Recover the amino acids of this structure.
């Protein structure tokens, strides 16, 4: 087996482990193909099982013959291992480095993982496009499910089934695909039941410098407009970035060719800028020696909060066009796989109460991120501590989760889930025993046989005990559109992720338990009162008033 | 009233942007002896806006336009009202009237002192007995064999800004007290503020010594030794000078300064670096400006927050409290706290430390007693700091605001530790400025006595206590870990946030979301009603009084702790 070649020293005794908020443990360090394990072999201490794929980078230090390895994880945790013996330390270090940067997907842990729990519902079948379409069909007959991408030939990053206007045939779709970046022709993202308006997404149109046009593309998107109505194109790039894209064959919808559409440009940053922000933000959060001035200026300089504000603002704009203006919307940036998805998925959180439930939110992530072709494998292969130069890495999904957290914080009673679900998705997007976030597109997931060979994260999440753990005790279904405040004063640093390992969670957990307690106690009383009421009602009907003395 | 030139103006437009209002309301403006009242014309809503004259902090008349003359009304609770008058004459009159009404020249003019003292006499007397510093000294088990009461200041002769009732070390003779008082700025000698029953260490307070570069006082040195002796567990005390070291050194040139470790053999000196009232006043103005920016970018906001320096100051106040609390609880060493005069930063540091050390001060009643003792009785100059009368604007400073904000910041870290919620802190702040009650009038106990406030007005505490249901934190439970014992906050800069509820309340989501506090409070209320119904029904079902005890026995015994005590609390006999 190849793993054995990489493991130079499989076990070392007398290793001391330091990790946040837990007592120091001394024990045996073992390396397996997928895990770094530290066990004291005593019952009362918790073992450490760390996936190699969760390791972002390591740092080695030596003091005499005592070596220290600082392991920096993708979930932003840092742990320290004190290893006696310089050679052991060097061996462990280089083994970890090799094992945490394996290139081959098929060597990844999800292919080896066997669930220790009973799978009630196979998560790979929980959110199929045909099921989602059934809900749409119940509301409108203006849309159909097209199989034009059945073998992933029209668009390599789309799923085999996409929803398109009923009166547009597959041939038109094929031609429109040729005119859009990555073949990503406009498809349905969201149908607003209240007024029948829709949100679509796509890649940028390939107008190039000489203003190419495509009648089929124009027909496709015009088919979504009601007679006499205008729609909005929300381009997530600034006008100048969009102009520059022309030189590389891209571009945007011009007024001349799309007279029924008004174009609005926003300024959501691209991947390498976002990655840079993440690195700076995490660095600032981990330096506890900062003065207040220095902390605030570092926070500002990271620009992270600026991205959060910009993304949320754009999502609000899209939602506003649909709900307030009663207009349909097409969203795209360049490829249509990053900022586009942030906007379309957040707009649905705002508009659609169903997306604020536990199941509904998973469905949203499945539809708007996984099926929609966000390249998770590329984007999440490195996190904030990686020393190598980023190529395709970007925390676009993490930013989306951050934005959801902001909305959740502003509407603490409108979400069925707590922050925990968001943190869990962040962790699993970067390192997981489940296959859900492997690969870059639906086509790749098929090619890698993920549904057959790995377990879905949703299989695990949707068990009663896990649902229970993720449920928000304050939840009261709210059927309204919810408009978050996007003023900087209203947007906070997401402590649950960025300060998670720097601040003890105990007091917040206590508060959560107390909330659960208050609500449970109320339910308990409610039940008692109801059963007593029933008893009384029975007594009254059974016993007519004849037993009066 | 003599100062009201025009009691009523019609067709006035009012706009309050800070409340998230976009379009002005049209209505009638009335001036009464106490309030500016605006009544909207709209026949269905007839919304009313009331502004106390004593809450007005500024009036401006920007150049008018074709639609009328403008008057901008700024309030001490940071509300801003834009008024538009059709006639310039009305605007001028209202401006002149309000200028006079909002700046009373003497306490006599204040509305709360113009009520007839003989109505509700019983209620008034009861209101003043609700919260007394003497109750707190009793609670701490004083006097005891270490700390004794002294009558040295019963006539305010030794120190006119101290209370009549003082607790001092048993080892300090009357001569030492007098001598120490003479060697301290404004006579504010070291006296007890808080006694920690677990470690027997104490927090004491005073003002700076009149040491200059080399001055000494044998009595004052004996006084400091006496403080040390009153703690059998340690052979030194910390002297916490809450000022920046440079400021303290500069004071030496004026014949004041700080204790030299050479002269006072048994002290360790610590500087906390809290800036003076002038720095704080302008810092608060800057954070207010940040909160009022219209559509700022994230960078504008964060840089504005940094440049205001406000959170840095809040951190400094909390850090001072943490230092004192650690010394008392962890090391068992007594602490003597002072700044310059010992009535601003010293009050902040002592009361923050007390809140960290003592769970009682995290209850509503406890916080009231703490403020009554550390602030009101020890001569925090409420009337000067919160601009009650027309006076020197350089005396105004948000000292109490900062203490209340520290509590808010702590509540963010310890959501279950405090019995009260954010509303309580905000309303308490407003009441410190608004002169609606006698408690916060004047600058010292002596002044308050000579004004006979207890005979002429009500206490602020009965007002707050009456509304206690509204101020209840539903997550508070007496037996939780963060409710017990010492609070150990994290004071890394990232733990501090802008207090949005005070500085930027207008930015809210739509529709306004229910807060967890409101939601849980209503659930809690529902539970109480259900408990009641359950008890009644069990009675009916059992055909007689049912054993009510089932709930306490099986259901949830801890619930009892969540009930607010009725009436005034424990010491009701007097």
């Amino acid at each position: 087996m190849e793993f054995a070649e990489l493991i130079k020293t499989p076990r070392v005794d007398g290793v001391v482990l330091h990790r946040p908020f837990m007592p120091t443990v001394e024990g045996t360090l073992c390396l397996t193909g997928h895990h770094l394990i530290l066990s004291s072999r005593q019952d009362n201490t918790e073992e450490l099982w760390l996936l190699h794929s969760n390791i972002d980078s390591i740092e080695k230090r030596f003091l005499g013959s005592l070596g220290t390895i600082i392991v920096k994880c993708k979930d932003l945790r840092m742990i320290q291992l004190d290893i006696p013996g310089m050679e052991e330390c060097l061996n462990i270090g280089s083994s970890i480095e090799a094992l945490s940067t394996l290139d081959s997907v098929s060597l990844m842990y999800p292919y080896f993982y066997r669930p220790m729990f009973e799978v009630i519902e196979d998560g790979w079948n929980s959110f199929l496009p045909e099921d989602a379409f059934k809900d749409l069909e119940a509301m409108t007959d203006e849309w159909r499910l097209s199989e034009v991408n059945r073998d992933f030939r029209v668009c390599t990053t789309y799923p085999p089934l996409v929803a398109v206007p009923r009166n547009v045939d597959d041939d038109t779709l094929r031609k429109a695909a040729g005119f859009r970046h990555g073949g990503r022709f406009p498809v349905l993202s969201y149908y607003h039941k209240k007024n029948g308006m829709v949100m679509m997404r796509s890649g940028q149109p390939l107008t190039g410098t000489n203003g190419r046009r495509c009648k089929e593309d124009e027909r496709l998107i015009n088919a979504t407009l009601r007679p006499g109505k205008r729609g909005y194109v929300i381009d997530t790039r600034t006008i100048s970035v969009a102009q520059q894209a022309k030189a590389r064959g891209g571009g945007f919808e011009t007024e001349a060719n799309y007279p029924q559409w008004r174009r609005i440009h926003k300024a959501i940053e691209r991947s390498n800028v976002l990655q840079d922000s993440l690195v700076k933000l995490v660095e600032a959060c981990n330096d506890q020696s900062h003065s207040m001035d220095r902390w605030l200026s570092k926070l500002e300089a990271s620009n992270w909060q600026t991205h959060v504000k910009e993304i949320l603002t754009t999502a609000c704009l899209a939602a506003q066009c649909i709900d307030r203006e009663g207009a349909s919307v097409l969203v795209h940036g360049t490829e249509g796989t990053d900022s586009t998805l942030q906007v379309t998925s957040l707009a649905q959180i705002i508009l659609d109460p169903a997306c604020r439930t536990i199941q509904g939110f998973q469905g949203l992530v499945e539809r708007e991120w996984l099926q929609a072709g966000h390249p998770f494998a590329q984007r999440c292969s490195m996190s904030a501590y990686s020393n190598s130069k980023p190529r395709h890495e970007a925390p676009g999904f993490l930013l989306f989760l951050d934005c959801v957290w902001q909305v959740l914080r502003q509407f603490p009673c409108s979400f069925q889930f707590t922050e925990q679900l968001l943190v869990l998705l962040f962790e699993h997007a970067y390192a997981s025993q489940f296959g859900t976030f492997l690969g870059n597109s639906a086509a790749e997931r098929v090619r890698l046989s993920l549904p057959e060979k790995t377990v879905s994260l949703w299989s695990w999440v949707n068990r009663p005990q896990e649902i229970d753990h993720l449920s928000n005790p304050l939840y009261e279904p709210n059927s309204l559109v919810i408009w978050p405040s996007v003023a900087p004063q209203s947007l906070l640093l997401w402590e649950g992720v960025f300060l998670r390992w720097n601040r003890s969670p105990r007091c917040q957990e206590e508060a959560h338990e107390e909330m659960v307690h208050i609500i449970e106690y109320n339910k308990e009383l409610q039940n008692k009162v109801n059963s007593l009421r029933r008893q009384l009602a029975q007594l009254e009907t059974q016993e007519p008033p004849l037993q009066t003395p | 009233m003599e100062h009201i030139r025009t009691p009523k103006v019609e067709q006035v437009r009012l706009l309050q942007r800070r409340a998230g209002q976009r379009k002005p309301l049209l209505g009638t403006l009335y001036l009464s002896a106490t309030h500016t009242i605006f009544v909207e014309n709209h026949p269905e809503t007839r919304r009313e806006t009331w502004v106390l004259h004593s809450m007005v902090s500024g009036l401006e008349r920007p150049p008018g336009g074709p639609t009328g003359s403008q008057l901008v009304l700024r309030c001490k609770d940071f509300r801003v009202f834009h008024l538009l008058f059709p006639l310039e004459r009305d605007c001028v009159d209202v401006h002149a009237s309000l200028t006079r009404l909002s700046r009373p020249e003497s306490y006599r003019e204040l509305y709360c002192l113009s009520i007839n003292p003989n109505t509700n006499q019983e209620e008034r007397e009861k209101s003043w007995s609700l919260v007394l510093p003497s109750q707190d000294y009793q609670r701490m088990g004083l006097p005891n064999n270490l700390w004794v009461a002294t009558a040295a200041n019963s006539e305010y002769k030794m120190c006119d800004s101290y209370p009549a009732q003082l607790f001092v070390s048993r080892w300090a003779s009357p001569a030492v007290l007098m001598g120490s008082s003479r060697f301290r700025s404004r006579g504010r000698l070291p006296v007890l503020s808080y006694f920690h029953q677990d470690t027997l260490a104490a927090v004491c307070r005073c003002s700076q010594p009149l040491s200059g570069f080399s001055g000494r006082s044998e009595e004052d040195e004996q006084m400091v030794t006496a403080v040390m002796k009153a703690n059998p567990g340690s052979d030194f005390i910390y002297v916490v000078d809450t000022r920046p070291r440079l400021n303290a050194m500069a004071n030496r040139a004026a014949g004041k300064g700080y204790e030299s470790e050479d002269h006072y053999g048994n002290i360790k000196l610590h500087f906390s670096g809290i800036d003076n009232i002038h720095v704080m006043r302008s810092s608060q103005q800057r954070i207010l400006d940040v909160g009022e920016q219209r559509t700022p970018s994230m960078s504008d906001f964060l840089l504005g927050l940094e440049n205001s320096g406000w959170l840095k100051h809040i951190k400094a106040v909390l850090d001072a409290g943490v230092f004192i609390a650690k010394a008392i609880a962890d090391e068992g060493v007594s602490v003597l706290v002072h700044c310059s005069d010992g009535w601003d930063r010293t009050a902040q540091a002592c009361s923050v430390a007390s809140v960290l050390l003592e769970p009682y001060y995290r209850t509503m009643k406890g916080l009231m007693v703490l403020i009554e003792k550390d602030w009101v009785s020890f001569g925090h100059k409420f009337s000067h700091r919160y601009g009650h009368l027309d006076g020197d604007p350089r005396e105004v400073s948000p000292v109490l605001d900062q203490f209340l904000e520290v509590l808010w910041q702590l509540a963010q870290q310890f959501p279950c530790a405090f019995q009260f919620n954010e509303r309580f802190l905000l309303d308490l702040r407003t009441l410190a400025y608004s002169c609606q009650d006698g408690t916060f009038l004047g600058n010292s106990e002596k002044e308050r006595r000579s004004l006979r406030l207890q005979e002429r007005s009500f206490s602020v505490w009965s007002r707050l206590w009456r509304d206690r249901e509204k101020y209840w934190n539903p997550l508070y439970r007496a037996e939780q870990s963060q409710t017990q014992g010492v609070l150990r906050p994290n004071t890394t800069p990232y733990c501090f946030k802008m207090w949005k509820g005070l500085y930027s309340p207008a930015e809210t989501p739509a529709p306004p979301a229910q807060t967890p506090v409101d939601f849980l409070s209503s659930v809690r209320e529902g539970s109480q009603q259900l408990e009641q119904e359950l008890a009644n029904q069990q009675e009916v079902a059992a055909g007689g009084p049912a054993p009510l005890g089932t709930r306490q026995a099986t259901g949830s015994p801890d619930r009892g702790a969540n009930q607010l005590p009725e009436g005034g609390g424990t010491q009701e006999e007097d």
